[in-house]
Specification:
Elements: H1 7-14, E1 18-19, E2 24-25, E3 32-38, E4 41-48, H2 56-68, E5 75-82, E6 96-104, H3 111-124, E7 129-133, H4 141-144, E8 153-154, E9 159-160, E10 163-165, E11 168-172, H5 187-199, E12 206-212, H6 219-227, E13 232-237, H7 241-256, E14 261-272, E15 279-281, H8 288-296, E16 300-306, H9 308-315, H10 320-323, H11 328-350
Parallel strand pairs: 4-5, 6-12, 6-13, 7-11, 7-12, 13-14, 14-16
Antiparallel strand pairs: 1-2, 3-4, 8-9, 10-11, 14-15
């Protein structure tokens, strides 16, 4: 008669499977739940730390393989779920688990494009995602998502409903202004607008709220950091000396405000030839972003190539990860989202965030 597997043996097998982002076993990280054994049949739930986990299938397969090796196991059923660990609570955003700011030292480095594609890629991975455009003077989200209508209002609660595109809840001051209307505001008015776009928008329950900040180190950045607990900030740069130098200043500003830096993204790292597909370092300095991340002791989140399709996609209101997911640039942007999701989850778990 075949031996009946014991719960202790199954958990011991699962304890050998490591999550490479958390550097902990599935059991130690609390990712194994609802373990049931009936004869030789074993079933359990693998609860990932982010719905957008790029390692979903490999972790599931590794867990199943480990359990099948336990003596007496004849069948294994793995149910995969996901729940992003919550960061700090926020009165302004009670239903939002993580607020991720996307910043740059200077304009023209593609920060808004990175923010838009990051939000869509996270949503395509199964997460509930919002994108807040806080670039008050130069909002790009309306163009990047092809939105030309105002949002709807809740007349009872006097709250604004975000506009949905590509699975992402969107809000931008640009939705509320005429297309050619300039914003001529001093600092206190910018701070007030930031608070209103956080407080008066019905964001609902979100795993991630991605915030596209204006370039530099101004009122919008300061207000956001003071109003809500940020999970962290992503710094977008190119390999130019000017961009890297000013990006470093932006990074140090967030450090001074005790905002965790999730990492650096090198955008427009190479030019992808539309004819032959050859990639050429556009600034002649391959690896500059990674070198800067090492020097500043922050994670390097990846590099995104420059491709004509990214510009065309943005102009027609469809982010590249949705329009051209199988291209080098689409894959690079999707990989960036997976890396960000992993870094956010690892940081939340290691801070001892409550998992249940």
């Amino acid at each position: 008669m075949a031996p009946v597997p014991r719960e202790a043996d199954v958990l011991a097998a699962l304890d050998t499977v490591m999550d490479p982002e958390l550097h902990r076993s599935l059991v130690a990280a609390g990712m194994i739940t609802d373990l049931r054994i009936a004869g030789g049949a074993v079933q359990f739930t693998l609860e990932l730390t982010t719905p957008a986990c790029p390692l979903r299938e490999s972790l599931r397969a590794a867990a199943e393989e480990a359990v099948r090796a336990v003596p007496g196991v004849s069948a294994v059923t793995v149910t995969v779920t996901a729940r992003a660990p919550r960061a700090q609570e926020s009165d302004l955003l009670p239903g939002v688990r993580h607020v991720i700011a996307v910043a740059s030292g200077k304009g023209g480095v593609g920060k808004s494009t990175i923010a838009a594609n990051l939000a869509v890629a996270l949503a395509r991975g199964g997460a509930a995602v919002g994108l807040l455009d806080l670039d008050i003077y130069g909002p790009s989200v309306p163009l990047l998502f092809g939105v030309d209508e105002p949002p709807e209002m809740d007349p009872d609660q006097q709250r604004i409903f975000p506009i949905g595109r590509e699975g992402v809840a969107l809000m931008s001051l640009g939705f509320l202004l005429a297309p050619d209307q300039a914003v001529i505001w001093r600092g206190p008015m910018v701070a007030g607008a930031v608070q209103q776009l956080l407080r008066d928008v019905a964001w609902g329950a979100l795993d991630y709220l991605v915030v596209d900040l204006p370039p530099g180190t101004g009122d919008a950045q300061l207000s956001l950091a003071q109003l809500v607990p940020l999970t962290g900030v992503i710094i977008v740069t190119t390999a130019q000396d000017a961009a890297l130098t000013i990006a470093t200043k932006a990074l140090q500003m967030f450090r001074a405000m005790q905002v965790p830096v999730l990492g650096i993204v090198e955008n427009m790292s190479t030019f992808v030839c539309p004819g032959c597909g050859t990639e050429t370092p556009i600034f002649g300095r391959e690896g500059a972003g990674e070198t800067a991340a090492s020097r500043l002791r922050v994670p390097f989140l990846g590099r995104v190539p420059l491709a004509a399709e990214i510009v065309v996609d943005g102009d027609r209101g469809l982010p590249t990860v949705a329009a051209h997911p199988d291209t080098p640039q689409g894959q690079a942007l999707a990989a960036l989202a997976g890396k960000v999701a992993g870094v956010v989850s690892a940081a939340a778990v290691m801070r001892g965030a409550c998992r249940r």
